[in-house]
UniProtKB/TrEMBL annotation:
<feature type="domain" description="Acyl-CoA oxidase/dehydrogenase middle">
    <location>
        <begin position="133"/>
        <end position="226"/>
    </location>
</feature>
<dbReference type="InterPro" id="IPR009100">
    <property type="entry name" value="AcylCoA_DH/oxidase_NM_dom_sf"/>
</dbReference>
<dbReference type="InterPro" id="IPR006091">
    <property type="entry name" value="Acyl-CoA_Oxase/DH_mid-dom"/>
</dbReference>
<dbReference type="InterPro" id="IPR045008">
    <property type="entry name" value="ACX4-like"/>
</dbReference>
<dbReference type="InterPro" id="IPR009075">
    <property type="entry name" value="AcylCo_DH/oxidase_C"/>
</dbReference>
<dbReference type="Pfam" id="PF02770">
    <property type="entry name" value="Acyl-CoA_dh_M"/>
</dbReference>
<dbReference type="Pfam" id="PF02771">
    <property type="entry name" value="Acyl-CoA_dh_N"/>
</dbReference>
<feature type="domain" description="Acyl-CoA dehydrogenase/oxidase C-terminal">
    <location>
        <begin position="246"/>
        <end position="385"/>
    </location>
</feature>
<dbReference type="Pfam" id="PF00441">
    <property type="entry name" value="Acyl-CoA_dh_1"/>
</dbReference>
<keyword id="KW-0274">FAD</keyword>
<dbReference type="InterPro" id="IPR013786">
    <property type="entry name" value="AcylCoA_DH/ox_N"/>
</dbReference>
<protein>
    <submittedName>
        <fullName>Acyl-CoA dehydrogenase family protein</fullName>
    </submittedName>
</protein>
<comment type="similarity">
    <text>Belongs to the acyl-CoA dehydrogenase family.</text>
</comment>
<feature type="domain" description="Acyl-CoA dehydrogenase/oxidase N-terminal">
    <location>
        <begin position="20"/>
        <end position="127"/>
    </location>
</feature>
<dbReference type="InterPro" id="IPR037069">
    <property type="entry name" value="AcylCoA_DH/ox_N_sf"/>
</dbReference>
<dbReference type="InterPro" id="IPR036250">
    <property type="entry name" value="AcylCo_DH-like_C"/>
</dbReference>
<keyword id="KW-0560">Oxidoreductase</keyword>
Length: 392
């Protein structure tokens, strides 16, 4: 099939996808436009999650892409990126929900689970019969989690006893499988555990009053002598290096999400500019309005070029920490500028949901912060290019 061009994809980057990949992207795009977009503002405003969409998401057969146990195809990193872009272009909340489930939760099990564990959990997660979450961040801090992780795991016979607290856990209020990262009291190393919903000692409370990604159900989690069987300890997660390997892969997905948000901002602002009239003519005819549109487009286009090259590095085996860190820091910074310019172009109409851009302006703040702040990603890149670490 031939896909319609994405508004704002000025250099036709979408055309780099293989025909079969374009077909997959097209199916997802149709689903987003018909099922997700009509509900996005309503659910965002109410801070409610559209649970009825989960089975329909599962029918797309994209959650299991790249996981042998799911029997799905092995996608290029370019397709994976464009899927994140497409979801964020429609609704960053649903893109985040999907990214947490597939990239963080399934990604942790796929990378750190034993063959038996992968067979046990991944197929039903690939069908989205079961939903995953990823519990790393804690209430007392986020950026220092590598050294400051306080949640503990203590071996007790054939089980592990987990104690601690987690915060900002996407999908945490309803997930069936929560990948919890805890420090082993015996050797001091960070290990991963799959805590199943309903396990005694596990409690999740929804975080209220968010101004961004309101549809995402973020949770505060408390683990109180929560007993997890040994078979639920991720077999290949033996230190924080394994945790960081998961974040390296998913961080690039946030950069793709940022591009999706920028393209949405461009599309909304352009449509508004050609329809809105002032002084007897469309505001698109005014030079300052065109300047704003071109700045938004420039940010989106340069960032899209960066993440496309990032995907090529992933598939060629040349991918390193600094590649995803620079993309995440740069693209989310450009995203913040772009959504601000779009709201500026729309003046007062830009601050209400009715005109489309307000939700993206708010959601951009969350994308800017999660998966490593700009400052932390800057230090990762700085260490790579100078050979000197500047972390505290």
């Amino acid at each position: 099939m031939t896909l319609d061009a994405i508004p704002g994809d000025l250099y036709h980057m979408q055309d780099l996808l293989a025909p079969r990949e374009q077909e997959i992207l097209g199916r997802v795009r149709d689903f987003l436009s018909t099922e997700v977009a009509p509900l996005a503002d309503e659910h965002w405003a109410k801070a409610e999650f559209p649970f009825a969409l989960i089975p329909k998401f599962g029918e797309l057969n994209v959650a299991g892409l790249g996981f042998e146990e799911c029997g799905g195809e092995t996608p290029s990193s370019l397709l994976t990126g464009f899927l994140a872009l497409e979801m964020a272009r429609c609704d960053p909340s649903m893109s985040t929900f999907f990214g947490v489930h597939t990239g963080l939760a399934m990604g942790s099990i796929g990378a750190c689970g034993s063959p038996e564990q992968r067979e046990r959990w991944l197929p039903e997660m690939g069908r989205m019969d079961k939903i995953g979450a990823f519990a790393l961040t804690e209430p007392h801090g986020g950026s220092d989690v590598a050294l400051g992780l306080r949640t503990t795991a203590r071996r007790d016979g054939g089980a592990w006893v987990l104690n601690g607290a987690k915060r900002w856990i996407g999908n945490g209020t309803f997930a069936d499988y929560i990948v919890v990262w805890a420090r082993d009291e015996d050797d001091g190393q960070v290990k991963g555990f799959v805590v199943e919903k309903g396990t005694p000692g596990f409690a999740a409370t929804r975080i209220e009053n968010k101004i961004a990604l309101r549809t995402v159900q973020n949770a505060d989690i408390v683990l109180s002598d929560c007993r997890v069987p040994e078979e639920n300890r991720l077999a290949a997660a033996g230190s924080f290096k394994d945790t960081a390997g998961i974040l390296r892969r998913t961080r690039s997905g946030v950069a793709w999400q940022a591009v999706g948000v920028m393209l949405a901002a461009y599309e909304i602002a352009r449509e508004y500019a050609v329809q809105r009239e002032q002084f007897g003519r469309p505001i698109a005819e005014f030079q300052l309005v065109q300047d704003l549109l071109v700045k938004i487009l420039g940010n989106a286009t340069s960032s899209l070029g960066m993440v496309v090259r990032l995907a090529q590095l992933q598939d060629s085996g040349q991918y390193r920490d600094e590649h995803s860190a620079l993309a995440k820091a740069h693209c989310t910074t450009r995203m913040r500028e772009a959504v601000g310019w779009a709201r500026e172009l729309m003046a007062g109409n830009g601050i209400v949901l009715d005109y489309g851009i307000g939700r993206f302006v708010a959601d951009a703040e969350a994308l800017y912060s999660y998966e490593g702040t700009r400052e932390i990603n800057t230090l990762i890149v700085g260490r790579a290019v100078t050979g000197h670490g500047a972390f505290v």
